Amino acid sequence: MIEVKDAVMQFDGKNALDGITLSIPEGCAYGLLGSNGAGKSTLLRLLSGIYRPASGEIRIDGNEVFDNAAMKERVFFINDETAQFNNMTLTDMKNYFKRFYSTFSEELWQKLYKTLNLPLKKRLNTFSKGMKRQAVVICGIACKTPYLFLDEAFDGLDPTMRIIVKQMLIDAMMDTGLTVIFSSHNLGEIDEFCDRVGLLHAGKVVFDRELDSVKGSVFKIQTAFDAPVTKESFVGIDVLHIENIGSITHLIVRGERDEVRAAVEKLSPKLYDEVPLSLGEIFIYEMEVLGYDSSKLG
Amino acid sequence: MTAQSSVNLQNKPFYKFLPYFLTKLRFLRPQMIMTGIFALLSYPLVGIFVNMWIDADIRLSEMSALTNSTTQEIQAALSFKRLAQSLAEMSIVIGGICLVGMFVFTFVTTLRSFRYLYNKNAVDMDYALPVNHNTRFFADLAAVFTTSIIPHFISVLVGIIFTNVISEKAKVFWGAHNAGNVEIVEVVSSIVLQCMFAGLFACFMQIAFSLLTISTSGKKAVAAVFPVLINIAIPIIHALALFIIENNTYGSETFGDTIYYPATATSPVGMLAISALFCINYLARGRSNIGNVDSTLPIWRVDYLIWAILLTIIFFVGAYFLIKFRRNERVGSPYVYKGMSVIIPGIVVLAMSLPMWNMVFAKLAHTSYYTPQNDTVAWVLGLLISTFIVYIILELISGKAFRKFHLTVAKWAGSLVGCAGITALLVFSNGFGKAEFVPAPEQVVRADVQIWADYLKYPDNKTDFRINFTTDKDTIAEITELHKKVPKHQTEDTSDYIILLNYLLTSGEIVTRSYWISPELYSEMMTRIVTPKNWYENIYGEVEQTLKEQGSEVGQISVSEIEYVDDDAYNTQNKVYLKPSEFDVNRFLEAIRKDSEKMNFELYWNCNKNYLNRVEIAFQRIKYGPIAYTIFVEDWMENTIEYLNNCVNVTQN
Question: What is the value of pTM for the model shown?
C-alpha cells in the first residue's frame, strides 16, 4: 500500500507539491491526472525514492522509500525520458536491471521481448522513441516488482503498441497483483486502464477517488427553463459549468444524481436530460473550476 | 495501512555494492582504456628507452676501451647510442604529456562516475535503482580508483623497477669516472621516485578535491569548469596569502621559494606545481645542492604530508555529506547548494584580486618592503575591470541569462568587498602571531645568525658577525635568547643595526627573521656572540669538519700576502705553494684555535683589515669531490703566523 501524507516538495522555494495526502491500495491501477506542472512527475519521483520530500511522509508497505535500497527493490520507475539508456543495447539494458532486481524473470522478459521483436544488439540511441519506451516497459515488467510507476509511459507508442503494452501491464497485474501508477495526459487510456484516479493541480490533490465514483459524480444535464438562468440560480448543487445555447441550458454538475435532479426540478424545467461525461470532459470542467480554463487562453 | 501490506525492509549499508560497482566500472570503460594507455606510455615507456640509452652508452664506452674494436664497430655503437638517446628524449616528452593526461583523466573519470550530480536523466537512472547512498558513493569512488589510480599505481611500480635498474647501472658507469657522480645518481633517482609518488598522491587528492567541488554543482558546465578553476585558484590564493603575510609582517624575510611550499598540501595542482618548482630549483642548481640541501620533496615533509592527508580525508568526508544531503530536484540549477553561487565565483575573484588588494593595503599599512610606488588608482581600476569581466564569464558558464543583471553586479561587488576584507586581514594581521614567534631551542635543528651595523658609519671597524648554521645546542639556546630580546615592532632609532636569524626547525620548516636593533642591543648581542668558540667555528669550523669527515688528504696549499686596494678589494702577491706532505692542517688549525682564545667583541671590532696572509687549501674529498677553502690570517694571530712562517721556510717550492 502506498501512503503519502502531507508531502511537500519545493523547487526554487516554490511548492511543487503542497502538502498532498494520498492513499493507493495494493493491486490498484492508479491514474494520475493533472495539468502541466501539476506535480505528477514529482510525485512519482518521490514515490520512487529519487526525491526526498521537504516535509511529510512517503511510505510504501509501511517503509520510507528514500535511500531505502531494500524498499526500492520493490519499486520500478519508468520516467518520461529514456536518454539515460542511450548507450546500451537491449541486452545490456536487460542485464543492467537483472543485476539490481533479484525478482527479475528472464523467462518473462524473453516472452515479452518476443512479442515486441525489438533489435537486441543495436544501441538504444538508434531506436525510435516508441521502441525505447517498449524496451524499458518490458524490463520494468520483467523485474516483477510489486510496484510499477510509469510517467507518460505510452508517449510515443503507436496505437497497436499501446494495446500490446497495455495488455502486458494487465497480464502482470493479473499474475502478480502488481500496483501500477500511471501518469498520462491521454485521459482515454486512463479511462480504459485505471480503476482509481487522482487529479493534481498546482501541487494539490483535487480529488482521489475510484474512477467509477468520479464518473458518477460529475455529469451533464440538458435542460430548458422559461426564464434565463445563471449558476447562482441553482442553490445547493455544485455547478461546474453552465452554457446557454438558444433555449437549451447545458449544465456540468458535481454531486449525487438524486440531489441534483431535485435541486434542478425546483426551478421547474421544461426539459431534463442526463448525459454521461468522458473522463476527458470531467478533467476539463474540474480544471476550469480551478481557473485552468481553455476558453480564457488565446 | 493494513497489517498485511506492511513489510519490514532493513536498509543494509552496502546493499547491491558489487552489481553497482561492476555496472559503473563498465560505464567507465573508455576512461579506463585511456588511463591505461597513458599509464603505459608514461613511466614504463620512459623506463624502457632510458634503460636502452644507458645500455647503449655503456656499450659504446666498452667498445671504445677495447683495443681490438674496429672503427666500424665503434661507429655502429655510437649510432645506436644516438638513436637510443633520441628515443629516450622522445619518451620523456611523451611520458610527461601522458602524466598530465592521467591527471586530467582522473578528473574526467570522477566527473563521469558521479554524473548524477549534474545530469537530470542520470539522477532518475541512478537514484531509482535499489541502492542506498553508501553503496552509490563508495562504489562510484571504488570505480574511479579502479579506473584511474590502479593503472597509475601499476605504472609507478614499473617505474620504480626501472629507476632502480637504471640508477644501479648509472652508479657503476658514471661512478667509475667520478666518485661524486654516485651521490648525484642517488639523489636524482630519489627525487624521481618521490615525484612518481607525488604524482600518484596528486591524482588521489584530485579525486577528493574534484568530488567535493562537483558535489555542490547541479549543471554539467559548472561541474566541468569550476573544479578546474578552483583547483588552479586554491594554490594561487595559498601562495599569495603566504607572500602577503610574509611581506607585511615585521621581521619576516622572504627566503626564496620555500615560503610557498605549504601550498603543496592544499590542492592537487598546488602539489604538482610546488613539486615541479622544487625539482627545478634543486636540479637546476646542479652539484651545489647535492649533499648540501635536503632533497626531500616538500609534499613528503611530515608537516605538509599530514596536512595533505588530512585535507584529502576532509574533502572525501565533505563530499560524502554534501552528496548525502543534496536535493536531487535541484539538479539542473547551477548549484544545488545556494550559497555556492557566491562562494565558488568568489574563490576565483579572490585569486585574482589578492595581489591587487595587497598593493592597496600594503601601501596603507606601510609594512611591505616590496610595495611598488605605482598609483593605487590604477591598481583599483584594473582590479575592478578584470574581476568584473571574469565574474560575468563565470555567471555565463553557470547559465545566467542576466534577466536580473543588477544581482550579478551586486554579487560581484560583494565578492570584491569580501576579498578586500580577507586581504586586509592578511596585511594587517602581523603574521597571525608569526612576528612574535621565537622557536624553543629544542625545536631548532640548525640556526644561523648574522648581525651587522652600517658599514658607511663605521668604515674602520669590523661590524658584522655570523654564526653560520650551527647545530650546537648551547649556541642555539643563546641565539633564541637573543631573539627574544629583539623588539617585535619597528622603532624610530634603530635603522643602523640589523640582525638576521634563520632557523631550520625539527618540523622541516625554515623560519627567517630580520629586525632593526638599537645600538645598545647590537653591542650586547655582539658581546655575547663574538666568543672564541663562535669565532673559530664560524671561520674554521667547516675546514675542521671536512678534515673529520674526509681525512686530511690535502691536494694543494698556497699562502699569499695581501695588499688592500680599497675598502672591498685586495691584491694577493708573493704567492707560495707549500708541499702538502709537509703541511699539517691539524697543526695549522690548532695554532688558529690557540689564537682564537683572545677573541672578544673589542678585538673583533678593532681588527678590521689587518689581514696578513691568504691561505688556500684544497682537499681531495672522496664523497663529494674536491673542495678548496680560503683562510685569512690576521696580524694578531701570532701562533698561526709563526706556524706559517716555519712552514714556508721549510716547504717552499
Answer: 0.81
Other beta carbons within 10 Å of A174: 10
B299: closest CA among B330, B251, B326, B266?
B266
pLDDT at residue B492 greater than cutoff 70 = no
Is residue A16 within 8 A of residue A36, CB to CB? The reply is no
- Residue A117's φ and ψ, nearest 5 degrees, are 55, 55
pLDDT tens-digit series, residues B66-119: 777 788 888 888 999 999 999 999 999 999 999 999 999 999 999 999 999 999
In this complex, which of A11, A71, A101 lies closest to B329 when CB atoms are compared? A11
* CA geometry: angle A176, A178, A181, nearest 5 deg: 170
Q: Kindly identify which residue of chain A lies nearest to residue B123, measuring between CA atoms.
A: A50
Q: Let me know: does B521 contact B475? Beta carbons within 8 Å.
A: no
Helix (H) or strand (E) holding B524: helix B519-529
Q: Which residues of A touch B125 (CB under 8 A)?
A: 84-85
Is A13 a residue whose pLDDT tops 70? Answer: yes
Q: How many angstroms separate the CA atoms of B282 and B285, rounded? A: 6
Burial class (CB within 10 angstroms; exposed 0-12, middle 13-18, buried 19+) of B486: buried
pLDDT digits 0-9 by tens, A73-96: 999 999 887 777 888 899 999 999
Provide Rg for chain B, Cα atoms. Answer: 32
Which of B230, B251, B306 lies closest to B507, judged by CA?
B306
Cβ B121–A42 below 8 Å, yes or no?
Answer: no
What integer pLDDT is reported at residue B609 of this predicted model?
A: 59
Q: What is the nearest CA distance from A97 to chain B, expressed in angstroms?
A: 9
Chain B CA closest to residue A67: B132
Report d(CA B532, CA B552) in Å as an integer.
24
- CB of B228 closer than 8 Å to CB of B107: yes
Residue of A nearest to B116 (CA): A84
Res B502 pLDDT > 50: yes
Number of neighbours of residue B573 by Cβ within 10 angstroms: 10
The residue among A55, A40, A48, A60 whose CA lies nearest residue A206 is: A40
Looking at beta carbons, which residues of chain A come within 8 Å of B121? 79, 81, 83-84
3-state secondary structure of B628: strand
All 3 cell numbers of residue B59? Answer: 656499450
Question: Do A124 and A88 touch, CB atoms closer than 8 A?
Answer: yes
Residues of chain A whose beta carbon is less than 8 angstroms from a beta carbon of chain B are 1, 3, 9-12, 16, 26, 42, 45, 48-52, 59, 61-63, 67-77, 79, 81, 83-85, 96, 99-101
User: Residue A298: its pLDDT value, please?
Assistant: 41
Cβ contact, residue pair B130, A59, below 8 Å: no
Verify whether the Cβ–Cβ distance B124 to A50 is below 8 Å.
yes
- Cβ distance B133 to A96 less than 8 Å, yes or no, reads no
All cell numbers assigned to B129:
535503482
Partners of residue A16 in chain B, C-beta under 8 Å: 329
Q: Where is average pLDDT lowest: B459-463, B552-556, B638-642?
A: B552-556
Sheet containing B444-453, strands listed edge to edge, beginning at the edge strand earlier in sequence: B465-470, B444-453, B497-505, B510-517
User: How far separated are the first and last CA of chain A, in Å rounded?
Assistant: 43
Over residues B516-549, the pLDDT tens digits come to 888 888 888 889 888 898 888 888 887 777 777 6
What does the pLDDT read at residue B287?
65
What are A121's three cell numbers? 544488439
Kindly state the average pLDDT of the residues B191-197.
94
Count other C-beta atoms under 10 Å from residue B402's C-beta.
12
pLDDT digits over B311-362, tens only?
A: 999 999 999 999 999 999 999 889 999 888 899 999 999 999 998 888 888 8
Residue type, B362: A
ipTM score for this prediction: 0.85
